[in-house]
Design brief:
Length: 90
């Protein structure tokens, strides 16, 4: 969890092979449903209006936005998941 976004670990299950674990970045600019604030103490990104939050351990549904083979980077977009922040989370 960082101020610029969060990393997601994806399990890829190729046929007839071991499970591969791949990491990708969900950049905060791709979270279009709200303006997200980073809270370093709680290690969370919290939406100002909708109170949706992303924190360590949350399950998040993602789509692959782009892959840079040479830089070995995967950019992701969150399409679901996260959790709801409450006033006592502040």
């Amino acid at each position: 969890m960082q101020s610029y976004g969060f990393f997601v670990e994806i399990e890829v299950r190729p046929p007839e092979s071991d499970i591969l674990r791949v990491e990708g970045l969900v950049h905060v600019s791709s979270l279009k449903d709200d303006w997200y604030e980073y809270r370093s103490r709680q290690q969370t990104l919290v939406g100002r209006k909708n109170r949706n939050q992303y924190r360590l351990g949350d399950r998040v549904e993602v789509q692959v936005k782009s892959v840079d083979y040479y830089r070995q980077q995967i950019d992701l977009v969150a399409v679901g998941g996260g959790s709801q922040a409450f006033d006592d989370d502040e």
